[in-house]
Amino acid sequence: MNTDIAIDARNVGKIYGSGAGAVTALGDVSISIKKGEFFTLLGPSGCGKTTLLRCIAGFETPTKGSIHLSGTDITYDPPYQRPVNTVFQSYALFPHLTVAQNVGFGLKMRGAAAADVAQAVDRVLALVKLEDFANRLPQQLSGGQQQRVALARALAPEPQVLLLDEPLSALDLKLRKEMQSELKRLQAETGITFIFVTHDQEEALTMSDRIGVMSAGALLQVGTPHDIYDRPTTRFVADFIGETNFLEGSVEDHQVRIGTGDLLAVPLEGETGPVTLAIRPEQVSVTSAQADMSGKITDATYMGTDTHYTIELKDGSPLVARIQSKSTATFDVGDTVGVAIDARAVQVLKS
Amino acid sequence: MGKTRAFDVTTLPGFTFIAILAFVLLYAPIVTLVIYSFNGGNSVNQWGGFSLEWYAVAAQNEAVQDATARSLIIAVWASVISTALATMAALGTTRRGKFTGQTVIYVIINQPLMVPEIVTAVALLIFFSSVKVATGYSGLGYLILAHSAFCIPFAYLPIKARLEGMDTTMETAAADLYATPLQTFRYVTLPLLLPGVIAGAMLAFIISLDNVIITEFVKSAGQDTLPTYMLGQLRRALTPEVNAISTALLALTILILTLFVFVTKKRG
Amino acid sequence: MSRPETGRKAPRSKGVDGWLLSAPALILLIVAASGPLLIVAIYSVLEKGDYSGVRWILSGEGWFRVLFERDIFDQTISLADANLSIFWRSIKLSIATTIITFGFGLPTAWFIATRPARSRAFWLFLITVPFWTNLLIRTFAIMEVIRNQGILNTFLTHFGLISEPIQILYTDTAVLIGMTYVYLPLMVLPLYAAIDRFDFRLIEAGYDLYASRWQVLRGVILPIIKPGIVAGSILVFIPSLGAYVTPRVLGGGKNMMIGNFIELQFGQGQNWPLGAALSTLLLLVVLVSLIVYTRVSSKDNTNG
């Protein structure tokens, strides 16, 4: 038994309903989340990430598989017996209780002495910098403050794992950025395992130690933000995280021949036959001079620091290039340009 | 209303006039009744100066005292019982999603609102009279039972409305924070539901206090409530005493309704 | 944290919990409201007892006597004119009450719904107070107004409009005035609810397309608030048909409606099976109206 593992989900599946109307929310997901890790479940809405989170919290019972917390099977434990707490998307603060009562709720339910509860509440409110708001009611606080109360409430009972269900989605951009670093700080200070659910890939990349990308009830790839961004293993992951160009081609003589007939010396690991190349727009450069390939600019979008050019290659396939706006040469729609691809950075996906 | 005002799509010709007329016609009789309850002198036709005489007469009348006490006892019991049962039923029908037979439950609960009261009254007369013969018991229990039953839909409505407006994530959050189902109900659901429960109890209280027909048919001899006493006192014209009792009841109703408005407004 | 004893057991079904929690209320309602209605239906097909009550022998006499009467001497059968006139009065007065309350109720509901948000609550409160006020008190109040020495007659005599007080009390008119008075809030509230949801921009669209005020009312407003009109009409018609207190107080014994006629059958030495048959009939009429109502309103909902 690996003692470094906080949450170990084995072959977890969840099917709602039965018969013809059955909906599979989770197919067969296995995942190990390490103690003290900031782990993010990333995917579009309906991909099953929230269902997995709710299975860990105990709000849903998986229809198959098991979930272990520090080596103990908790699959069928009711939520109130799990040392796991949730920060809800809607915060779910109790409107009839003060901030302090909200934060102390979990400890009180576990039967802690009043003095201990009070002490813990003070400590946690200090942690989220809300000491002065202890006696307010939730509706008297701003959205950002409510968010902190929800965090404090979930942290106060010192859970082994903290689950965060898109907690930042209700905040405006500026506040969201603040809370992102706040969450990182809290995680570092408390050392608690965080499992964070989001559909925002940028949020996932900036905050996480590791990311699990989900789609249609399946876990597609688990890895560090670098792994996920630079070495996506599936077309879905490459497409969902950042912008990506896809070019179809086939392996020929340790290189890949693409639709234009050009050969690209991309890194191959024994692939043969048809492959898909995932090319990030920043790996494409455009010159007015002759280059490996050529194409015609069909669209130019100025985006501040960068300009995005859509280039139509000889075979008609589109390729997006991201060029720094301050770079010397600018191009217009209709220009014929030379195109170069940084072949070493290209990711090869099996077709 | 002026002709110089811009064309207002929300006004229709004559509507405002008829509406004001309706309010006047609605309140004029009640106001008259209230004014005449303060009439000194014996005549119901002649104004004999302001006086609380008839309130004193009513208050000292033993039959009125009895009927008042009985009305209050029945209304308290009926509102407590119906609110408790309605709260459970509301939790059962709103907190656990859809289930088979839910419509049947709705129909049975709302049945007293649909069946003409005289029919229910007659049915209870037949039923309770045989129970009275069979058991020999003829106390207030029958009235309390009947009132509790027809008060249920009135208590149920505001409680159900409150529950439907309440987020189930509150209960989920409580369970996440180590509250057992019982603790969740005690510390989260019930406090949040309380305004609805109070509102339901108040409506049930008013409905019980005001009931005439079912009470008239179910009561045994000597079990007059205030409304049946008043109905029994009816002659060619109202006695000033009945005016006074009516006004007192009216004041109580308005008081409870005002409280009701405040309780239900504080929600959310 | 050890695994609980219950282990893998599936959670109890929602339906079981729902029924269990509703059970106490349902039992009370079945014992003291719905169940006895069945007894009434059974009594309607039993034989009349000698003194009162019933004998447990099947008989159609109760239902027969709803419409017919038998001559005591020669047993010839004829229509029971007295009963028919009571039915006719009940239906006539109930329809009239529904129409008049609608005439007053629509402008009143419209008026409340078009007030600014702040004062709207006040006007709504003014309508709900009579709604929750004891029916008997309201009937007494209207009686004070229309009796011979009441305000109305005093007022009219005072200004020389009439020389003799008009006899209104103890006539059908009195019952009609009384029922209109006590049931008006029941018409206003559902109409208000419908108008409150009404999108007033539709009226602007109507005027924009050259409709007159009358055409806007008939062609735009009334069709859209129809569910409210149907609900209000049902809410007024049903209690009017089963009215008991108002005809008893204002109709004065002679001008009976079905409710009073039913009561009469349950006095000493009277005909319980006939009373039970009349009650069942009334219940059936109400049920049919409610079914029609649900049909109409659900059809309206599906049409948008």
How would you characterize the overall build of this protein?
The complex is a heterotrimer of chains A (351), B (268) and C (304). Chain A is an alpha+beta fold and 351 residues long. Chain A has eight helices and 20 strands. Chain A folds into two domains: 5-236, P-loop containing nucleotide triphosphate hydrolases (Rossmann fold), CATH 3.40.50.300; 245-350, Nucleic acid-binding proteins (OB fold (Dihydrolipoamide Acetyltransferase, E2P)), CATH 2.40.50. A six-stranded mixed sheet of chain A has the order 6-7-8-3-9-10, with helices on both faces. A five-stranded antiparallel sheet of chain A has the order 13-12-11-14-20. Chain A has a five-stranded antiparallel sheet with strand order 15-19-16-17-18, with no helix packed on it. In chain A, strand 12 and strand 13 (263-264) form a beta hairpin. In chain A, helix 2 (99-109) crosses helix 3 (114-127). The model of chain A has no long low-confidence stretch (mean pLDDT 88). By secondary structure, chain B is mostly helical. In chain B, helix 6 packs across helix 8. The longest helix of chain C is centred in the first third of the chain and has 33 residues, at 81-113. A two-stranded antiparallel sheet of chain C has the order 1-2. Chain C has a two-stranded antiparallel ribbon with strand order 3-4. Chain C contains 13 helices and four strands. Chain C is mainly alpha-helical and 304 residues long. Chain C: It is a multi-pass membrane protein. Chain C: It is found in: Cell membrane. Chain C: Its main location: membrane. Chain C: Belongs to the binding-protein-dependent transport system permease family. CysTW subfamily. Chain C: One of its GO terms (biological process) is transmembrane transport.
